[in-house]
Amino acid sequence: MHFVLRPIALLLFILVSSSVYGQTVCSLESREKLEQMLAHFSQTAFSRMPPNELATSIGTEFLQTPYVEKTLELPGPEQLVINLQGVDCTTFVETVITLARLATIGLPTFEAFERELAYLRYRNGKNEGYASRLHYFSDWIYENQQKGILTDITEEIGGSFYPNVPSFMSENPKFYTQLADPSNLEEIKDTELVLKERHYFYIPKAEIQQLEPNIQSGDLIAITTSMPNLDIVHTGFAIEKNGRIHLLHASSKNMKVEISEKPLSDYLAGNKSQSGIIVARLTGN
User: Fold this and answer.
1) Which of 3, 16, 201, 225 could form an SS bridge with 154, CB 3.0 to 4.6 Å?
2) Measured on CA atoms in the order 7, 94, 138, 145, is the torsion positive or negative?
3) Cα(116)–Cα(156) distance, rounded to whole angstroms?
């Protein structure tokens, strides 16, 4: 869920460009770190890696990076926020996938990162305002499958029907400053109606360990919820550790990017509101 960014956090950002992707906001520290990583990941060894291996290799480079929520929630017109100094679960996933895609195609530039991140984050790959951002993660998965970036493999590996009817945002506009704008609120309501018409699958948490052999390191893991008006509450990457699948993620509990101490099935078992997982695999396109 997205809330209002505290004013002090705004001091960390500077406007670095204005382009077809909209205004881009990034700190000098984040840009420097990004350019170092782009140069590193553009090396031949990385460009030849399969997409899933790239995701885990790049993702582990972010271990210990601080967890910071709401970095996308800036006042005013929607801006493309790039922040490598602090990530939440979704921005961590977006940053890793964008870097992996650039490593594969060999475009180690800031401008290419802008383009690819916007393509991933927004409906139809274009920043056309707040409502064009893929706020619901089930929508994020669906849209990025349509773009050829990933494939939802949940049904294929044994998933069950998931009744997904998210309405949290429209029912709780008080949590979203931008929804004070009636046009944004109406667009979000329209999006929710579209999401309700789609078919979704998930692996119930009681079945994760049994189906674990079908999950590979680098697969995208989206954690579903028992809350009836919300779809996904957390996300990260599968990563194998001691023969079991764990979660590589930006943890709000431990306030950093980490590999879960417990295997994925045990990680979910301890949380009543987490009902299961959706699994997606990067395509390399």
Assistant:
1) 201
2) positive
3) 28
55 vs 58: CA distance, rounded Å = 5
Among 21-30, 137-146, 235-244, 245-254, the minimum mean pLDDT is found in 21-30
Q: Would you say 90 and 279 are in contact if contact means Cβ atoms under 8 Å apart?
A: no
Give per-residue pLDDT as tens, 168-192.
999 999 999 999 999 999 999 999 9
CA distance 192 to 46: 38
Instruction: Quote the tokens at residue 254.
Output: 């431990």
Structure tokens at 203: 């692996």
Domains of the chain (ranges; CATH) run 7-144 (1.10.3670.10), 148-282 (2.30.260.10)
Please tell me the total number of residues recorded for the chain in this structure. Answer: 285
Tokens found for residue 18: 């204005």
Q: Could you tell me if 25 and 16 are in contact, meaning their C-beta atoms sit under 8 angstroms apart? A: yes
pLDDT given for residue 22 in this prediction? 59
- How far apart CA 186 and CA 259 sit, in angstroms, is 39
Tell me the DSSP string of 168-213. HHHH-GGG-GGGGSHHHHHHHHHHHHHHHTS--EEEEGGGHHHHGG
β-strands 201-204, 160-161 pairing:
antiparallel
